[in-house]
Each structure stands twice: as structure tokens, then as C-alpha cells.
Amino acid sequence: MAKAKTAFVCNECGSDYAKWQGQCQACKAWNSLSEIRLTSSKTPARVSASQDPRYQGYAGAITGIQSLSDVDLTDVPRFSSGASEFDRVLGGGLVPGGVVLIGGHPGAGKSTLLLQTMCWLAQQQSALYVTGEESLQQVAMRAQRLGLPMDNLKMLSETNVEAILNTAQQLKPKVMVIDSIQVMHLDGVESAPGSVSQVRESAAVLTRFAKQTQTVVLLVGHVTKDGSLAGPKVLEHMVDCSVLLEGSEDSRFRTLRGMKNRFGAVNELGVFAMLENGLKEVKNPSSIFLNRSNHPTAGSLVVVIWEGTRPLLVELQALVDDSPLGNPRRVTVGFDHNRLAMLLAVLHKHGGLLTSDQDVYLNVVGGVKVSETSADLAAISAVVSSFRDRVLPHDLVVMGEVGLSGEIRPVASGQERISEAAKHGFTRAVVPKANCPKKPIKGMTVIGVERLSEALDAIFEN
Ligand code: TYD
Ligand code: MG
């Protein structure tokens, strides 16, 4: 019998090696390699009938090839998961044969989200919920407490993938949930559940099943402290969509964010609130992170950012203070660190404010991450406000990208952002000149600016 082939895979990043070694060369993690057994694949018999010597050994009839334009597109109807925020993140709904990985910290609400979704979905489609972590009683108690329709959802408490697929083959569900992939195991793989080889092989088998039977498979996966998916990164390569359910512990809001999507855009954000009776969709989340005190303070300013297809109002806070250090601190939470350093340089050169002897802290309130450049002008203004100890008006929003030569550049969807701010009671907006709306927006005074100095004058005029 031929010797079984093995490889060594890093638990942290998924890179593989032929030999064991103490440190992973790719991610530098120590003692993270574990052995996996590769399933032996027979090498195809070679037929040397080709005339062209370059293709010796590759002859044979051409099968399975068709022109891209001939591929049948009619049979990919999406269907709704029943939760519109979930659909939005998936790019419009579930796709038959699609494999979706739902990641999140323990306690984020993955099981709750899927249980709710499946109970409602089961009213129209056949659905199977496989729980490997909780007992059937626990799940049923939760469903009852949340007041979900419980009669149509099929439940299975099982961790053996072969057994699950046997059941699924008979039941033929349209949607199947695996909660969670980390507790699943295959008979043929000799390592503990949760190890790289088990997770990888189990996911591969489930993915193949999804593609062959056109079943939607939703995999639950736990993430490590630093936010990466626990165990093999390879999971992310295998699945069609990967979404992350996040939320800080002290906040009841949970955001569902697409990380990878083969069927749609990834910049969509779904927002839920975790209440006593389960996760509720937040249909109009633009101001949920805006919870300002009634006493305006220096260094605080609101900016409208764009998340996927909708605006979100967030508060920026800056604190600028004399630094006792030779190399003053620049600390950011939710904002790019290098971008702040760059903006401070622009502020010095074009705004005439030197911060090289000051510690600068910049925080985005509510645990939101701002990756857009539209918050540049607001960040600079918050810094200036804190430095000069000048309180900015409560009804002011500021947006605009700041270029290295001190110019204020337009932002995408400027008009919609201004309208959204107006809806939430803001009455003054300082925006890039190119974003000035053609028609006046009711209740909103818009000031268009082109240069940083001009913008600071407009913001700190009174
Ligand atoms: P759960 O779905 O079990 O998390 P995961 O599967 O991601 O580990 O959610 C658990 C948390 O949600 C739990 O700690 C309590 C909270 N929760 C509520 O606040 N309200 C509810 O109605 C439910 C069901 C859970
Ligand atoms: Mg769970």
C-alpha cells in the first residue's frame, strides 16, 4: 500500500509546509503547525496520442468546455433569507449552492441570528438546522422564548459530517445551517475536532455537498481575539461569502459586515440590535451611533460617512494636550493612524497650527471604524477645536477629503450625506465646494469650501 501523504498546516494563517518546523514562515507564529493527512488522488493515466510534442501526455477528447457566453444563467435565482439586513450583506439574498461563513466572537449572536432567520425561512423553504454546540432542548427553549414559529424547522444534533450529509441527502433541505464548523469531524481524519485538518476537510466535504445538491450551506465559525477566523484561514478561500457579526460587549448593537462575496459587493453593512427578545433589525441605522451629551465639549464633531449604500452619522472626538514626551503620542481608535499623522502635517503647513509638541488622540465614538477619506476635514477640525478649546456648534456637520496641498476634495454622494444630516436636525454643513447642492436643502445652511484655511475660518467663525 502506498504511504499516506501528509502536510503541515499553520493553525493561524493556513499556509502549508512539507516538513514540520517550529515557526510558521508566513505569519511567524510559534508552534502553530499541525499535521494533516492528504487524501490520495490517483494520477490520471497518460495517453500519448497527441501529435504536438508540447502536449505529449495530455491528449484526449475535450469535454466540459463551453464558451463563456453560452453558460446557462437562468438557474441562479436568489431567494430572500427573510431578514432584509442579512440579505443586504449577502448582496441581495441566498444563492442556491452557495456556502456562507458567518464569523463572530462567542456571544456575538450568530446562533440567535441564524435560529431566527431559519425559523422564519422554514415557513417557505425546507430548512435543516444542525447544532453541534447546544443541545436540542437549549435551542428549542431559546426559540420558544423568542416567540419564533417552531413547527417547520428540522433540527439535528450531530457533529459527524458523514451522518449529517446522510440525513441531508434524505431530507433534501434547501438551506442547511452548521453550528459550528469547529465542532464538526470526519471519520477519515485522525485528529481532534477543531483542529485545522478536521475543520478544513469538513468544510471541503460540506462545500462539495452544497455545490452538487444546490443546497445553501451556512457555516458558523468562531473568531479569535484579534478578529481573524479561528483555525485555518483556508475556510475563507473555500466559501462563497464570508460575513462577520461584530459588536462591542457594552453595546447592544451588532453589525454584520461582508468580508468576501462571490455574488455581490462586500462593502455592505447590516445593523441589528440585541434585545431581550432576540436580534432586531435596525432599518434606519444612520444615527444609532450618535448619542451626544447635551453639553457640547471641545474636540467633538459629527461627520457623515458612507457605508455600502447608505449614510451613517458618527461623532469624532479629538484630545490635544501638551506632551511630556520627546516623541509625542498619536493615538487613534477607529481611524487610520498614518492618515492622522498626514493630516497633522497638512494642518501645520496649510492651517498654521503646529502640533509637534502635543499628544493627539482621535476617537470614533461607538466603536465604528472610519476608513473613508471623507472624515479628513472633520478630523482636522476636531483637533483644532480641542487645541484651541473652542466648542463647535452642536448642529454642525463637516465633511471633505483633505489633500496634501491643503485643498478640500469632494466626496462621493455628497448631496445624500447633507440631506441625511438635515433629517437628523443638523442645520449647518461645511462641505467641499463641488458637493454644494444645486437646490437648497430645507433647514440646512451649506457652506462650500475649497481650501483648508477657508474651511477652518468657516468652521471657527463665531
Ligand atoms: P448566541 O447567539 O448564543 O451567540 P453565538 O452563537 O455567537 O456564540 O448569543 C448569545 C448572546 O446574546 C448571549 O450572551 C445573550 C445575548 N442574548 C440576548 O441579549 N437576548 C436574546 O434574546 C438572546 C437569545 C441572546
Ligand atoms: Mg452559538
Automatic annotation (TrEMBL):
Protein's UniProt keywords contain RNA-binding: no
Cited Pfam families: AAA_25 (PF13481), ChlI (PF13541), Zn_ribbon_LapB (PF18073)
PROSITE patterns, sorted: RECA_2
Family: Belongs to the RecA family. RadA subfamily.
Annotated spans, Lon-protease-like: 359-462
This protein's domain notes: The middle region has homology to RecA with ATPase motifs including the RadA KNRFG motif, while the C-terminus is homologous to Lon protease.
PANTHER family registered for this protein in UniProt: DNA REPAIR PROTEIN RADA, DNA REPAIR PROTEIN RADA-LIKE PROTEIN
InterPro entries cross-referenced by the UniProt entry: AAA+_ATPase (IPR003593), DNA_repair_RadA (IPR004504), P-loop_NTPase (IPR027417), RecA_ATP-bd (IPR020588), Ribosomal_Su5_D2-typ_SF (IPR020568), Ribsml_uS5_D2-typ_fold_subgr (IPR014721), Rubredoxin_2 (IPR041166)
UniProt keyword terms in alphabetical order: ATP-binding, DNA damage, DNA repair, DNA-binding, Hydrolase, Metal-binding, Nucleotide-binding, Stress response, Zinc, Zinc-finger
Domain of life: Bacteria
Name the record gives this protein: DNA repair protein RadA
Residues that hold ATP according to the record: G104, H105, P106, G107, A108, G109, K110, S111
Function: DNA-dependent ATPase involved in processing of recombination intermediates, plays a role in repairing DNA breaks. Stimulates the branch migration of RecA-mediated strand transfer reactions, allowing the 3' invading strand to extend heteroduplex DNA faster. Binds ssDNA in the presence of ADP but not other nucleotides, has ATPase activity that is stimulated by ssDNA and various branched DNA structures, but inhibited by SSB. Does not have RecA's homology-searching function.
RecA family profile domain ranges (all copies): 75-223
Position of sequence motif RadA KNRFG motif: 260-264
Gene of this entry: radA
